[in-house]
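Next up, a specimen:

>
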Amino acid sequence: MSQQASDCAVVASAFPTLVSPNSACCGTWGVKCGDDGSVRIIEFYNRSLSGTLSPAISKLQSLWYIDLSGNSFSGAIPQEYTSIPLLQSLYLYRNQLTGTIPSGFSSIKSLTVLQLHQNYLTGAAPSFPNVAVTLYGNCLTNAMNQRSASECPILFQRFKARA
């Protein structure tokens, strides 16, 4: 199986409503590939997508840019995303993501942009040296401009219990 066929099968499994199985995904709207056919960019922003984020895209070893912003994804950010070796830019803002930010993102040497604002992420944000991070509008304990107590009831119930 060629690199393109292998990578496109992964993209199709992660985004079945946008990419047909056994089809060439390179060059379709939202998927860009390198000369070798490997998927380098996934841009499915503002596509009314929902469900959970698929950990399958972590299998795309040449992937460096992901933009899934402006959709309705829910659940946690897959820990597997922290193992995408060439990842430079990750845009997951304006979804309905919950849970904590995987600490492994701070170990990706190539990561330069991480935009996670306007979700419902909780806990303490890890430190991200040399990364342009946007975290406002979440439910984080150590970041500025977070959602109100009424929008983050589980988070603030935990603080009340400790007091």
User: Anything to note?
Assistant: The longest helix spans residues 3-14. Confidence is low (pLDDT under 50) at residues 158-163.
